[in-house]
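Dear support,

I submitted the protein below through the web form. The confirmation email said the job was done, but the results page showed an empty box. After a refresh the structure appeared. I'm attaching both so you can tell me whether what I see now is the final result or a partial one.
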Amino acid sequence: MRPASSRLALGALALLTLLLAFAGADVMSLKGCDEGFYAQIAREMLQRADWVTPHYAGAVNFEKPPLLFWLVASAYALLGVGDLQARLPVLVAGILGVGLSAYAAWVLRRDGRNAVIAGGVVATTGLYIQVWHQVMIDVPAFVTLVLLALGLLGEQRDRRFGWLVGPSLGLLILAKGALAALVMAACLPYLLWRRPRPTKPLVFGLFVGLVPALAWYGAMHQLHGVEFWRIHLWQQVFQRAQSGLFAKDPLGPAFYVVHMLGTFLPWSFLIPGALTVAWRRARAGDGPAVFSLGFFGVFLVVISLMQTKFEHYALPLLLPVALMVADWATEPAHRTDRLTGGLYVFLSLLLAGAIAAIKVFHVPVEVPQLDGTLLAVSLLATTLAWGGALLVCRASRPSVTRTIFAGTALSFVVAAQLLHPWDAMPGLRQVAAAVPAEAAVHLVIPGGSGADFCTYAAARYRVGGALDVLVPDQVPAGPKGWYLGKAEFLTAVSGDRLVLEAGGWRILERR
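What the results page shows now:
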């Protein structure tokens, strides 16, 4: 790629990344189950000035390591408490993830086109966009993974990259705890193949980088003893892996393979071809290909065998996918191209046909914003089919890779805007703002907080004062004060003042 073309492509990638990061970032209120929960822990960390032990609703919480809470609490300290402030560290981390993925591809291949495609794959993958806009640890953890890979792979070219291994591993432990061991296990095939020798930068990086993680775990053990390990390690890691949180998924071990077809759009149909090229390069002794294949295989097998399954657990697979897709897109012509392109077109048209059938025959599908969803995915499927046809003859048309990248990125930007549930709990943020600061609130939930923790967590973040939970039958005889709940469950009695109602939520004042 010529220097002028490289600068233009990198500029376009940077613009796309910023657009995807900040467009509508403050429109959607925090979701309760995860976002409201984590955002509240960060707020209590700041309020208590206790940066060691996380607390939730006044009680110690040992579930997660502190990196996300440190980042969000720091944003609160600088900018105040709010939804956008809570998401800001993750939004910035997402931008870093795109940039570092592109830089890693450039370090490994010294090809500007390869770098732009790798970064573009990360920026426009559906799962990445989804967790990029949520107060969750997955995207910051992805950044640490990219740094770890850059340290391991870059050392082959320049020993100085080895110092990245320690800090990235330490941050990964502070982000994901014991699950960092899974990432290292996925790196094991490359390490066994490469057998890197200890160098001064590598040893120094490990010594310095692991100190913060060891210090935090040591402090938690000293403060809370065995109870911390029982919850943080045994309950949150081993029990989740062995018995799961929910009923067994009917897809079983095939859960991630099936879900990746959707969550890794618009690139999921390219994975078979990318794996083929990676296998061919790995057999020829190519280090990045060995790393990508080994990481992809080990990580996918392990998370598939775990009983607790969430789509976002597959996010680390995006790094090897991005590297392999970039290699495939810049690979010279091969006899397998026609087969791969044909499969790409077939799967794309199959998806488009299924969507058309749902629309024409009115098949009941529980999807929010149904018409917008069908329109978005139809557009995406059409673009994929068009791109697949071009991929078959990419070697004879040098501009094809850029055309496909631009088309799929544009289609997914449109799809993401239409598919995104911009407000998971519309109205809650608005009505909760009508409650005076530090006022106690009675939250009305059928079945109590145990039956609907997501609603409780969302309300807990919104209410500055004390929050207790009532069931609808307790409301008529309830005490004076503020009452918050869904309009269908919160009915005013004589003397109640309806303060505000929006989005199905209602706030009452009983004097």
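Response: this is the final, complete result; the empty box was a page-load delay. The CA atoms of residues 171 and 304 lie 25 Å apart.
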